[in-house]
Amino acid sequence: xxxxDLVLMEKALLGLFAAVTVAIVVAKLAGKRFRLPPGPSxxxxxxxxxxxxxxxxxxxLMAMARxxxxxxxxRMGVRNLVVVSTPExxxxxxxxxxxxFGSRTRNVVLDIxxxxxxxxxxxxxxxxxxxxxxxxxxxxxxxxxxxxxxxxWEEEAARVVEDLKxxxxxxxxxxxxxxxxxxxxxxxxxxxxxxxxxxxxxxPLFNKLKAANAERSRLSQSFEYNYGDFIPxxxxxxxxxxxxxxxxxxxxxxxxEDHFVQDRKKVMAQTGEVNCAxxxxxxxERKGEIxxxxxxxxxxxxxVAAIETTLWSIEWGIAELVNHPEIQSxxxxxxxxxxxxxxxxxxxxxERLPYLQSVVKETLRLRMAIPLLVxxxxxxxxxxxxxxxxxxxxxxxxxWFLANDPKRWKRPEEFRPERFxxxxxxxxxxxxxxxxIPFGVGRRSCPxxxxxxxxxxxxxxxxxxxxxxxxxxxxxEIDTTEKPGQFSNQILKHATVVCRPxxx
Length: 504
Ligand code: HEM
Known about the structure:
The protein is α+β, with helices and mostly antiparallel strands. It has a single domain, classed as CATH 1.10.630.10. Helix content is 54%, strand content 8%. The strands form four sheets. A five-stranded mixed sheet has the order 1-2-7-4-3. Strands 5-6 form a two-stranded antiparallel sheet. A two-stranded antiparallel ribbon has the order 8-11. A hairpin with a 4-residue loop joins β9 and β10. α9 runs antiparallel to α14 and α14 (292-323) packs across α16 (354-366). The longest helix is centred in the middle third of the chain and has 33 residues, at 239-271. It is globular and about 70 Å long. The N and C termini lie far apart (68 Å). The structure holds protoporphyrin IX containing FE. Residues 94, 120-121, 133, 140, 301-302, 305-306, 309-310, 313, 369-370, 373-374, 376, 438-440, 444-448, 451-452 line the site of protoporphyrin IX containing FE. Heme binds at residue 446. Keywords: Heme, Iron, Metal-binding, Monooxygenase, Oxidoreductase.
């Protein structure tokens, strides 16, 4: 073991020496040719890594933008990281030069989980991406899908309400509502994908799936593997971490295959019908448009991109409603006034509920689930704001900062849904204003917005219709400390919430 480590260390040091030499030469050459964006001065090999550290979250990047400017460059070892912090530059990256900046970077971990970009979310801009996005659109991302599935979402939300009402603890000491909502989100998406649902939180298959997805999320969003990603000579030290990722990837894809995809193949063989999203995807495979690995990576993408992001947003929404009882009451008054006391909110009702829509938008603004969007990348050398952007730079659009910049918003630190009925009443979540782009804009924008908005609206609406949502006894507020990841932002502590049934 010790010999092994010494060999590794020797290799690493030799590699380090070679890399220093190469880096100095490259830096000298590059310095002459390029007009790079501003940023802290970089050291050889490690670049800015030791100065700025690992925690490249939306708030730290906002602080750096204030220091270095609207577009700045960090050299994180071999990776160039360009951070964009104004709506004008966001427009340039996502819209005007949407093709140039329309690729994705992966890192050593995402390479593993996506089979080097055989998926859709993390693949470079090009034919494969176009094909995957086209194949996924009909089964997942149209208003027909919403119309076919919205009753399912309403039913799942109704079951959440029923279960909370049946649980005496929920009304007194409170429960971690997220746990039940997680089951709901899996059911919402697994019904679309496989026409399947899980009966309870105890379902062993649901628990296996949940554990595998949580581990995938933890391993990829962590900052702890940055050193091996940024500095390739240190990669041998990441061996155990990467082995864990490989092992999990294999187990997870097998779980999708054995328990869900195969099942759907059998049903299709019997009925010959195309009923759920997976049937469409398997059709595409049968026609030779994609291979079976692509099929599994589509399942992987939905498990991460759809379920977690929406769940985090609902969780943030509940936390803000608990901490702002006056907003919660106002929302309840709207629901009662528009729908009457007995009608449970449904998807078609949402357009008649402007305050509910504003609560959803305000949650997405202040507590953006993907505050840095999914990292973009330019395959070739590019220009931005007069600067040269070296090929294959990771481009982070700090969407959270755009939506929380006091220069551009009135008291942005306040959770105040009214802003979307008053001074910001024209602003939509779909990106009609580059200050507010929680789902991105343009070619790589989130196609799932069409599902996410109604699911969040229905869920928050039904909870507020049925319960007073309160902090647990003895606690004035829910703790809303953030837990940012590589590009995510979750609540750190899954809150215990008292759900006191309303007396009507
Ligand atoms: C509140 C919930 C959600 C939020 C905040 C969210 C946010 C985002 C963001 C910021 C991006 C990247 C945009 C960019 O890089 O420019 C993205 C991409 C994506 N999202 Fe979502 N999303 C949510 C829900 C969903 C759902 C429900 C689905 C699927 C049913 C989904 C599927 C995807 C896919 C496939 C991509 C990759 C698009 C591409 O690279 O071409 N998302 N999402």
